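Journal club prep — side note

Before the paper discussion, L.F. wants everyone to see what a predicted structure for a comparable chain looks like in token form. Sequence:
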Amino acid sequence: MNRRHTRAKSGLLILLIVGGMAGSAFGQLRATTASGNSNGRESVGRFVNNYCVECHNGDDKVAGLDLEALSLEDLDRHPQAWENVVRRLDARQMPPAGWIRPNGRTYDSIVSQLAGSLDRIASEHPSPGRTDTF
């Protein structure tokens, strides 16, 4: 059986598990990223592993994105990459049509938690923009 069919079968089981955890585990991401608790990060990490790294890995780097190299601890070091991920998920552009996709509740939860974490990081480390004088 090829990788896509294997992924589809295992993805269905994972989808059911991740979908059920969306309300609790994903809701903790913002707090756990700050506190060091890894439960929220692990849940989001599983989401990324289940739906994203098939294409966005170190070997394939579809669209130049390697999510295997960007861990959730890198949210503050690579905010633009994670903002792009949030935009694609929010628009339901990823995973592409024909691939196993999360349900709407899971999409909403992951987008909300990643966006919330990025917003928190931006408020803790504001970028004043260009500060040079003319």
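L.F.'s comment for the group: The chain has a mean pLDDT of 74. Keep this in mind when we get to the figures.
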